[in-house]
Amino acid sequence: MSSFALITFILVLLVVFYVISVYNTLVVARQRIKESWSDIETELKRRYDLIPNLVSTVKGYAAHESETFEKVIKARNLAMQGGSVAKTAENENVLNSALKSIFALSESYPDLKANQNFLDLQNELTDTENKIQASRRFYNTMVLSLNTKIEMFPSNLIASLFHFEKKDFFELDEDQRKSVQNPVKVSF
User: Fold this and answer.
1) pLDDT tens track for 142-172
2) What is the residue range of 48's domain?
3) Residue 14 is assigned to a structural domain of this protein
4) Fewest CB within a 10 Å sphere: which of 27, 34, 53, 116?
């Protein structure tokens, strides 16, 4: 075998190993996105399960606020439908707004504010919201990683060759961003 053929063979082999390495890196990134989305869905389901208990507790004190309860239940049912990342984010933003109205009701009902069941549910929802935020941050980090690899040269060539697609971030809408920066003050 001539030295030219040997050098060509080694170069082709290096290119093949590089393509395999980049491909595997992209696959790992895509799987991490799936895993992190699953974490978000788990926490969202936990929150969906807590909402009926919260509504029942508040109903006992504010039965005439049926419009607020219907709004929360409707938003919960809409959010549970899932869909794309963007649709899920949109539905979650609606649900978050509806939940704020439930907590705002407690201001008008001192007995509700003192109810241990209500306080426990509020703490569980707060804990769940924190877990959702952490999961969302991890998911968005994984999306950023994959999207960057898909756009960067030369990995973009391999991503294009194997049809890797950019993923959507799970983002808050503008009202949610403002409420995170300046949360509504509700004292219990």
Assistant:
1) 999 999 999 999 999 999 999 999 999 998 7
2) 44-142+169-181
3) no
4) 116
The single-letter code of the amino acid at 174 is E
For residue 188, what pLDDT band results from cuts at 50, 70 and 90? very low
Q: Could you tell me if 175 and 92 are in contact, meaning their C-beta atoms sit under 8 angstroms apart?
A: no
The total domain count for the chain is 1
Taken in order 69, 73, 74, 75, the sign of the CA dihedral is positive
At 154, give phi and psi (nearest 5°).
-95, 0
In the DSSP assignment, the letter for residue 65 is: -
Looking at the domain assignment, is residue 29 inside a domain? no
Tell whether 97 is covered by a domain.
yes
Nearest to 89 by CA among 140, 125, 52: 140
Pair 138, 29: CB distance under 8 Å: no
Q: Are 78 and 48 in contact (CB under 8 A)?
A: no
CB half-sphere exposure, 123, CA atoms < 13 A: 7
Is 72 within a domain? Answer: yes
94/81 Cα distance (integer angstroms): 13
Q: What's the rounded Cα separation, in Å, for the pair 164 and 149?
A: 10
Q: Where are the alpha helices (DSSP H) in the chain?
A: 3-59, 66-80, 85-105, 110-114, 116-151, 155-161, 174-181
